[in-house]
Design goal:
Elements: H1 2-10, H2 17-37, H3 41-57, H4 66-92
Helix pairs in contact: 1-2, 3-4
Length: about 90
């Protein structure tokens, strides 16, 4: 299921014929999981970073400037720091 949801987020086809068949018969479940991801702040932030990088790598945008690479890298580091803080807070609250 995770592979199919990921493929749908990025607009990629299913990775295997088995996944393609599963998607045909379980489309509603995949769409349900997609809708649930919009409420996940961490996941949305990470997907935003990846989509931006993918658009440059895939040639949909001009090559990244040094500054754009630095900004993208800083976004990844900020995401990592925030995620670590969140995980530590969750662990302390258990």
């Amino acid at each position: 299921m995770g592979c199919l949801v990921t493929s749908e987020i990025f607009g990629d086809p299913p990775w295997t014929e088995k996944n393609a068949q599963f998607l045909l018969t379980h489309r509603s479940q995949v769409e349900k999981h997609l809708k649930e991801t919009k409420d996940d702040v961490w996941l949305c932030s990470f997907v935003s970073i990846l989509v931006d990088a993918k658009s440059h790598i895939g040639g949909n945008k001009s090559p990244m400037t040094t500054k754009e690479v630095e900004v993208l890298f800083e976004r990844v580091l900020q995401f990592k720091r925030e995620l670590e803080l969140s995980l530590c807070a969750d662990k302390e609250n258990r």
